[in-house]
Structures are given as C-alpha cells and as structure tokens.
Amino acid sequence: MSSPERLILFTRYPEAGVTKTRLIPALGPAGAADLQRRMTAHVLVRAEALARARPATIEVRFEGGSEDGMRAWLGGGYRYRRQGGGDIGRRMHHALADAFQEGVERAVLIGSDIPGITTALLRTAFDRLGAGDIVLGPAADGGYYLIGLCRSAWARGVQNLFRNIPWGGEHVFTATRERIDTLGLEAVLLDTLADIDRPEDLALWEQSCP
C-alpha cells in the first residue's frame, strides 16, 4: 500500500561540465558539480527529518547519470526515477501523475538548489494542503521552488496547470497563479526563498550553509 504522502525531489547527477553550468565561470566544472552534491544533500537531510515524523516517502527524480550512479551517490533509502523528456512542466506533470496514480493523497515537489528550505517549511507545505488545493513556494527570481497538490485537485483538472507556461523566465510564478485562478482552484503560498543558479547567488549559499 502506498504512503499517503510523497515528497518528490528534482535533482541532477553531479557530472562536471554538465551540472550547474551557469556557475562554472565562478566555480569551474568540478566546483559546480560539487555544489550540486552539497545542495542536494542539504535538502535531503531536511526531507529525511520530515519522513521520520510523518507518513511521507521520498522519491528522487533525476537527470543525467544512472539509477546505479544515483544509489552509489545518495544511498538506497529513496525511490529513484528519471525525470523523463520534455520541458520542466511536462516532467513535473509526469512525476505528480505517477504519485496520484499510485494512491498518494498529497504530493509535494521541490528543487535541489534552495538553501533556505527547512523541515518545518516542508511540514507546512503538506499541512496546508488540507486548507487549499495547491501549495506554492515562490522563488525570488520569479519562479517557484515548491509545488504541492492534493488528489482531489488533480482530479479536477489541475494537470492543465503545467501547459504553456513560459518556463525559465521571470514570469513563471505569475503565469502559474493566473492559471490556478482560471482553473477555479485555491492556492496557499509559502515564504519566498532564493535559489542558487548564477554566480551572484553564491553569497546566499555561503551565508546559509557555510
């Protein structure tokens, strides 16, 4: 029987020259890959604390590498799946669709490059799915770092949330909120956090995770 809650982490296998390429000018290929390792581990420590306190399982959706490589890196305590093809919206759609098809009641999807993520915030995301259809964590760059949905919202057509969104730009969060309103759904917002994508973001990582 499936756990009623699933935390889905999107990450990438830390391969030098492929991972976090926008940080390579500041860190070099190996340094950017190492930061990817550290950021993923940072999130997983907080995810594991959540899973110990409530009926939630952790699924790692990855790009690059292989499942064996991911297990060698992060261990055998997680379920691993490839993110699959298409843009980020299509990949998130499939990850959430799989969760609900497998009997999950509440699913929360997060990225791996958010130094401000905490176990308390993850717990709040799941808890607030009882008060709204969708939980969103806005990112400082105009996107979002977390999205959570309940089964009933998915059944009412929320899968359309991910279609024709301008992914990668500064209007992702705004376009998503407009889509939520169009679908007649209710969103609960979490705190705004910054992600680590560009060299100028590195100071935030150093401050948060010295």
Record the SSE blueprint.
Elements: E1 5-12, H1 24-53, E2 56-63, H2 67-74, E3 79-82, H3 88-101, E4 106-110, H4 119-128, E5 134-138, E6 144-150, H5 151-155, H6 172-182, E7 187-189, H7 202-208
Parallel strand pairs: 1-2, 1-4, 2-3, 5-7
Antiparallel strand pairs: 4-6, 5-6
Helix pairs in contact: 1-4
Could you please describe the fold and organization of this structure?
- This protein has helices spanning 24-53, 67-74, 88-101, 119-128, 151-155, 172-182, 202-208; strands at residues 5-12, 56-63, 79-82, 106-110, 134-138, 144-150, 187-189.
- The chain is of the alpha/beta class.
- It has a seven-stranded mixed β-sheet with strand order 3-2-1-4-6-5-7, sandwiched between helices.
- The longest helix has 30 residues, at 24-53.
What is this entry, summarized?
By secondary structure, the chain is an alpha/beta fold. It has helices at residues 24-53, 67-74, 88-101, 119-128, 151-155, 172-182, 202-208; strands spanning 5-12, 56-63, 79-82, 106-110, 134-138, 144-150, 187-189.
